[in-house]
Amino acid sequence: MSRRGRVTVGVLVGVFLLFTLLGWGIDAYTDWLWFNEVAFTNVFTGVLLTRLLLFVAIGLAMALIIGANLYLAYRLRPMLRPHSAEQATLERYRMIIAPRIGTWIAVVCAVIGLFAGLSAQSRWKDWMLFRNAQPFGVKDPQFKVDIGFYVFEFPFWRYLLGVGFTAIVLSVIGALAVHYIFGGVRLQGVGDRMTAAARAHLTTLVAFFVLLKAVAYILDRRALLLEQHVSPGLYGAGYTDVNALLPAKEILVYISIVVAIAIIVFSNAVMRNLVWPGVALGLLAISAVAIGGIYPLAVQNFQVQPSLQDKEAPYIARSIEATRAAFGLDKTQVSEYPASNAVPPANLPANISAQNVRLIDPQLVSEAFTQSQQVRGFYDFGQKLDVDRYDMNGTTRDYVVGVREINDSQLTPQQRNWLNRHTVFTHGYGLVAAPANQVCGGGLPYFVSGFLGTGQQANCSSPKEEIKVDQPRVYYGEQASEYAIVGQADKNKNVEFDRPQPGDNNAEERYTYTGTGGVPIGSTFRRFVFAIKNAESNFLLSDAVNSKSRLMYVRDPRTRVEKVAPFLTIDGDPYPAVVDGRIKWILDGYTTSSSYPYSQQINLQQQTRDELTNQGTFALARDNVNYMRNSVKATVDAYDGTVTLYEFDEQDPVLKAWNKAFGGHLVTPKADTPPNLAEHFRYPADLFKVQRNLLARFHVTKPAEYFSGQDFWQVPNAPDNPDRQVQQPPYYLNVQLPGQEGTRFQLTSAVTPNNRQNLAALISGSYVDNEPRLEVLELPDQTAIPGPVQVHQKMTNNAAVRSELTLLSNSNQSQVLFGNLISLPIGNGMLYVEPVYVKSGQENAVPLLQKVLMSYGDGGEYVVLADSLKAGLDELVAQGKNQSGPSTGTPAKPPTSGTPPALTGQLAQAAAELDQAIANVKAAQQSGDFTRWGQAMQALDQAMANFQNAQKAAGTGTPSASPSTPASAAPSAPPSANPTPGS
To answer: Which pTM was predicted?
Structure first.
């Protein structure tokens, strides 16, 4: 290469490195500024230094090991080489490499060390846990070793073993190449094919490889406790592993040591050739196959399989016990609930739990919040609201709450310029709340807080703010996707849009941020840095950036906490609460592990997915874990972005290890949690879903019963649309379940027997004295109480109910949407409540709560479609008092002369088939499945023909002999290709 070419290449490489290093430097500097803002610089420096340490240590170690072997191979080269065509060909390579052998070795080692270091720095979590390991105080059932070894130390030991194997393999390859180039290893010519020095070098490396294999067998013995081996589908070491594979691994350890010694001795001291070392390696391979493979397979097939249940019973018990302990199921309180009463009790309307049933569905009323409380088109409350509780005048009530934020995507084209997006529309305003079981006349929520001024609707709003917020401005929220520049040097200049002026929605108030949130960017240097960071010249050119400006970035609460505590898994549903007059986002943080012995491994994303996932909630990552604790409650102040981590599980060793790793003051002790904040803590949704799904199997604690699987449960699908194959989400309720001393704010879910739809149990999660409480109300096996899907079908198939629903959906092409179906145990029976919303066909129409669908008992005998919760409870009691009459949505009346005669025989059967066909058409229409709808319509035509034939055969064609619902009630339009969620 010419001198000009070398200069050109050097300049290009230099420019590339400059911009790469500049980008890394700017990212690191802006991250440090952000961590300094939230006062968590110890996390930034701790992670950065740990990564640098691992990068240097592993990269340097790998480079030194390989470099030493390459240099040793060069030093052991023969001075005299026999003449051959092969050596003549290699001579030109030797002439290129030999003069600069040090440079070549340094370059190769630097490249390998770079990649090894980059791989090592990603293991910073494993190293931090390894250094700060804590005891669990529980030993594994096989080796009697503390669980802490598996959780904290085992993963890093396995990684170091992998590094060792990589270093040895690369050393063998590199040394063999150097020996070949410089004549130590020859393929042609007279004499030995390998010099004594080369043989000693290479066989020593192979011996080290075999010794590492011995270490691998030792760790493999422990790894058996973490793998899926126990039948049926459980984790841990089973009968074959304990009685065949573990001894085999131990034997292979000794064989590996003997083989390593034999390789060195026979290659260099006795035989001085590679025949016996090769034989030794072959024997090791044969032993690994025979002892480690064939023998355990024989034990499995000839000893275990013929009596699988008996052989695996002790190990099934181990897996059950470990899984329940790892996921916090071991303290679950199980009690029997007979559910024997099928008649609504007379005191049902006075029952506090029945009165507290939540009617407002957070998923469906978001549009109503937005339309009623936005005033400006860019305000938004998100896809799903949240549920919280507040103490008003000594009474705790549930509230559906949402934060009024600015949705950047809803800004007009004129408003989307850089100045407006980043300096004017910087924040939302207010927390809007509505009681969970109260609506105004038109079916809208009744708002009690978050008013922008005096323009609220008199009939749908309280006269004054019931939930007082001293600082209603929201600079940090779930929809804050853009960075914001706030603060003014001129105290008389307000540029931020604050809210419409009270009494005049066309005028607006302006505001200047006065808090401590954001990074100061008044200096020219910082403005220059962020101009490069965001590729935006306005940081330097715009007058909107002044000496008092502060830059707010990473404003989403969930991302903010994940950045502060990167070792936590954050729950997918953050929620806002008013604490001491300020809006705070509350988030649940989980510590997890994938190396808890014998515990069942799950995929977090799969286990937490349900109907609401990605509908206002976040999907968790695809992490495989077998240990999970809700160890941290985190808060983010909506005004200044302050992040605080509160310890919640004081016994969690994983949190203790992380807290120690970052100086011991990363989390605030549980005792220092403000009481006003603790009042708003709620059982976390994602943890509850994981525990609920595991309890579906691991409520069975006897190995024999677990092996049979006959008593397993499953989570039902969404009742109003089961064909979507998504699970029904759990619901927050402020109720008192049987066996509880008072009302609690708790998360509840119904489960059904495996592959059946009747109700098996109710699971609830709540806090008692700020400690988690998981409870199960288990129904007797012989009962046939319907589950959520069956109840919904029975209620909507009721003649009177179906007629009213048809009228609601046919008027103005309206759409009927079903809210959350609540299953509530009351009076030794089951009360089911499902709100019914109607969304008209008009543009921008919002769903309005119009009816409440309720039933008691088996879901079919006592059914009402009422205008309110109270009216429905009263009507159910009235039906219960008159059990002789059929249930048609109203109390039965004695037959009169005008009452049509009851259908009998084939006519009654044909009428029932026609009713079912109409219900199937309605269900198909709601599912949005064109194929299913077409099949249902064909079945409806056949059912109508059969009914008409039965009428003729019975000798009557009068209307009185018609089925309970006329055929005209069946939908005549095909289903929508894009059905509304929840419909």
So the answer is: 0.86
d(C-alpha 587, C-alpha 386), whole Å: 12
Strands (E), 404-528: 405-406, 428-429, 431-435, 473-474, 484-486, 496-501, 504-511, 519-520
Distance CA 877, CA 879 (A): 5
pLDDT (0 to 100) of residue 886: 43
Q: State both tokens at 620.
A: 């968790």
Strand-pairing partners, residue 824, are 831
Q: Tell me the CA distances in angstroms from 494 to 497, 524, 800, 978, one per residue in order.
A: 8, 23, 60, 45
Task: Give the SS3 label for residue 22.
Answer: helix
Cα separation, 68 vs 64, whole angstroms: 6
**Alpha helices per DSSP H over 182-292:** 196-223, 239-240, 246-268, 275-289
Contacting residues for 87 by C-beta, under 8 A, at least 6 apart: 81, 183, 186, 189
Do residues 400 and 362 touch, judged by C-beta distance below 8 A? Answer: yes
> Among 525, 515, 452, which residue's Cα sits nearest to residue 484?
515
The model's pLDDT over 823-861, given as tens digits with 9 standing for 90+, comes to 999 989 999 999 999 988 777 788 899 999 999 987 778
385 neighbors 398 (Cβ within 8 angstroms):
no
d(CA 644, CA 637) in angstroms, rounded, equals: 9
pLDDT tens digits, one per residue of 198-246: 888 999 999 999 999 999 999 999 999 999 988 889 999 999 999 999 9
Six token digits for residue 333: 């309180």
At 549 the pLDDT is 95
CA angle 881/882/885 to nearest 5° reads 155
The pLDDT value recorded for residue 99 is: 86
What is the rounded CA–CA span in Å between residue 804 and residue 797?
A: 11
Peptide bond into 232 cis (omega under 30): yes
Please work out, in degrees rounded to the nearest 5, the angle formed at the alpha carbon of residue 47 by the alpha carbons of 46 and 53: 90
pLDDT at position 220: 95
CA distances from 538 to 25, 550, 942 (A): 21, 14, 71
Give me the residues of the chain with pLDDT under 70, please: 1, 80-82, 189-192, 269-274, 374-375, 453-458, 502-506, 811-812, 883-905, 907-908, 919, 921-938, 941, 948, 951-983
Residues 762-791: b if buried by 16+ CB within 10 A, e if exposed:
bbbbbbeeeebbbbbbbbeeeeebbbbbbb
Amino acid making up residue 910 = A
Report the distance separating Cα 860 and Cα 889, nearest Å. Answer: 10
Distance CA 362, CA 493 (A): 39
